[in-house]
Design brief:
mainly alpha; 5 helices
């Protein structure tokens, strides 16, 4: 099993803690919808942002790190995108409850 699914899943689930705190502080529902929209936009552009990060590493001369990132992309990106969707869902739930 890919360990990244566990790590990213836990990171995504940890997003519930700040959302609970913000909800208890009395923020309006639209604040949470804004967070959810932000995470959905990041979810949609995660692949180009990952490639952009690899290009920056190459530009700065970090060839071995860029090669490593390219090799890890198929293992890291799907769990990261899952975590982003989880964070969007948690944000929406916090706004609705």
């Amino acid at each position: 099993m890919n360990l990244w699914w566990i790590v990213m899943g836990l990171l995504g689930a940890a997003w519930a803690l700040p959302m609970i705190g913000i909800r208890k502080a009395g923020f309006p529902w639209w604040f949470f919808v804004g967070f959810a929209c932000f995470w959905l936009v990041v979810f949609m552009v995660a692949d180009p942002m990952y490639d952009w990060g690899v290009r920056i590493r190459r530009k700065w001369g970090m060839m071995r790190l860029a090669d490593f990132a390219e090799r890890m992309k198929p293992r890291v990106l799907p769990p990261a995108r899952f975590a982003l969707l989880l964070m969007a869902a948690i944000s929406l739930l916090a706004g609705l409850l």
